[in-house]
Design brief:
This protein folds into three domains: 1-97, Alpha Horseshoe (Serine Threonine Protein Phosphatase 5, Tetratricopeptide repeat); 130-235, no CATH class; 239-294, Arc Repressor Mutant, subunit A (Orthogonal Bundle). It contains 16 helices and no strands. The chain has helices spanning 3-17, 22-35, 39-56, 59-75, 79-95, 99-115, 119-128, 138-154, 158-175, 181-198, 200-212, 215-223, 226-231, 248-258, 263-270, 274-286. The longest helix has 18 residues, at 39-56.
Length: 294
């Protein structure tokens, strides 16, 4: 039985028994129909779900369904309605401390801003969505990392875009969670643009670099992709945590620490952010015998 058939059966049963969770089942059925691009059915079920959850005063369910209705409007090109739905969802989710839905609403607002060409807003919304842990929200992290790849391509940073796409692919393989159909088209279009800008050889290198990134590195690169583009710094394969070997960049940071430089001064000298400096210092301190660095 397909996912849609299961949800349709579940909705039918809940109608008969008067289950108060009918609104939730309708919302998930609408989501499944959306992924099949059956937007008319999806909207019908989602609107019924919203009416039921609002009547019951279930703000969490309402927040989730408003967000999904926003994705329907977004897919159909009604960006004004999509924004209204997303913002309503975000406000409700924050009001009831529905953290996971808050992140999804921010993610979708970032996707909308990207499609509208408002790259600063897209970056701000997507960055706010990186506040959860990957073990708590694997599905969300897969989609957020992929969307940062799209954003980097739109910002004219093709190497960063392909690296982040490589990191996304590695996370997808690790978790077994694919991109939703509703987001795959945007991702594939921007990735093709970035690959074309780089050329086959450079794109292959960037992809391999992304595949080697740890998740914390990928997140740092997503938040500050300009560092590697402007400074020309290659992404180095990272030694195992237990290894005493430092990367070239970590050695540079260690030397400047020994000279008494502050994090800000190191960042200015190496053309990286203070956050990245702090991350390098953390990795240096993780190494055995790190005091022997010269």
């Amino acid at each position: 039985m397909t996912a849609r058939a299961r949800w349709e059966e579940g909705v039918a049963v809940r109608r008969v028994i008067g289950d108060p969770r009918l609104s939730t089942a309708l919302s998930y059925l609408g989501q499944v129909a959306r992924e099949q691009e059956d937007y008319a059915s999806a909207q019908t079920w989602l609107e019924e779900s919203l009416a039921l959850s609002e009547a019951a005063g279930d703000q969490r369910d309402s927040a989730r369904t408003l967000d999904r209705l926003g994705t329907i409007a977004h897919a159909l090109g009604d960006y004004s309605l999509a924004r209204s739905r997303y913002e309503q969802s975000l406000a409700l989710a924050r009001q009831v401390s529905f953290h996971n839905e808050t992140l999804w609403s921010l993610h979708n607002l970032g996707c909308l801003a990207l499609d509208q060409g408002d790259l600063p807003e897209a970056r701000e919304s997507l960055a706010q969505g990186l506040t959860s842990r990957v073990d708590e929200d694997k599905i969300g992290f897969v989609h957020r990392l992929a969307e940062f790849a799209c954003l980097a391509a739109a910002e004219g940073l093709p190497a960063a875009a392909v690296r982040l796409a490589g990191a996304s692919a590695a996370l997808i393989q690790q978790t077994g969670i694919p991109l939703q159909h509703s987001e795959r088209g945007r991702y594939e279009r921007w990735l093709a643009t970035a690959r074309q800008a780089l050329g086959d050889a450079a794109a292959a290198i960037a992809w391999a670099e992304g595949q080697q990134m740890r998740l914390d590195q990928a997140i740092a690169h997503a938040v500050a992709p300009h560092e590697l583009e402007i400074g020309g710094e290659p992404v180095e394969p990272q030694p195992d945590r237990g290894s005493s070997t430092l990367t070239q960049r970590q050695r540079e940071v260690a030397v400047l620490i020994a000279r008494g430089r502050s994090n800000r001064q190191i960042g200015e000298e190496l053309v990286i952010t203070e956050r990245t400096v702090a991350a390098h210092i953390e990795h240096i301190l993780d190494k055995p015998n790190c005091s022997a660095v010269t």
